[in-house]
Amino acid sequence: MVTELSPDVAARGIVFAVGLLSLFAAHQIGDHVLQTDRQATAKAGRGRAGLRAMVGHLVAYHLTAAALLVGTGAVLGLPLSTRGLLAALGFSAITHGLLDRRWPVRAILRATGAAEFAESTAPVCGMYVADQALHQLALLISALLLAAL
Questions:
Q1: Domain that includes residue 48, residue range
Q2: Is residue 1 scored above 80 in pLDDT?
Q3: Phi then psi for 90, rounded to 5 degrees?
Q4: Contact partners, residue 144, CB within 8 Å, separation at least 6
Q5: Residue 98: other Cβ atoms inside 10 A
Q6: The pLDDT of residue 2 is above 80
Q7: Is 98 contained in some domain?
Q8: DSSP of 13-58, one letter per residue?
Q9: Is residue 94 part of a domain?
Q10: Comparing C-alpha atoms, which of 128, 132, 68, 45 is closest to residue 96?
Q11: 21, 26, 53, 127: which has the fewest C-beta neighbours closer than 10 Å?
Q12: Is the CB of residue 84 less than 8 Å from the CB of residue 148?
C-alpha cells in the first residue's frame, strides 16, 4: 500500500536534502578554500593566537554556510525558518570548533581501536580523514535541525 506524503513532510524532506547539500558545499569551501594557513596551523593551539585563528575560521566558514543555505533556499523558494537556520548553524559551529581542536578526533580514534590510524600520514592522514567524516556527521545533524525546526 502506497501512502501519500503530506505537503509538510515532503517540504521537510526537500529542505533536509537541499540543506545537507548546501552545508556540504559550504564545508568544502570553508575548510579547503577560505581557511588560511595561519588558521589551519594555529586553530588547535592554546592562548589568544589559537582562539583568534579558530574564531576567524569559524566565522568565514559559517558566513559561507549561511549564504549558501539562505541563497539556495531563496532561489528554490524553500520554507526555511529562522529557528531552523540558527539551530543548524549553531550546531555546526559548536561541533566544528570542537572537532578542530583535534584532541576529540584523536580520542575517538583511540577509543575505537584506531590509535595507529590517528597517527598515520601515509597513504592517508588518519586524523584528517576521521576529522572530515565527523564533520560530515555533524552536517547531517545540522541539516536535520534545519528541516525539523
A1: 7-148
A2: no
A3: -65, -45
A4: 16
A5: 14
A6: no
A7: yes
A8: HHHHHHHHHHHHHHHHHHHHTS--HHHHHHTTSSHHHHHHHHHHHH
A9: yes
A10: 132
A11: 21
A12: yes
Please, is 21 exposed, middle or buried when counting C-beta atoms within 10 Å of its C-beta (0-12, 13-18, 19+)? middle
CA 31 to chain centre: 9
Question: What amino acid is encoded at 115 in this protein?
Answer: A
> What confidence tens digit (pLDDT) does each residue in 7-20 have?
899 999 999 999 99
Q: Is residue 36 part of a domain?
A: yes
Domain contains 12? yes
**pLDDT digits 0-9 by tens, 56-113:** 999 999 999 999 999 999 999 999 999 999 999 999 999 999 999 999 999 999 999 9
* Span 23-72, pLDDT tens digits: 999 999 999 999 999 999 999 999 999 999 999 999 999 999 999 999 99
As for how many domains the chain has, the answer is 1
Q: How many residues does the chain have?
A: 149
Amino acid, single-letter form, for residue 58:
L
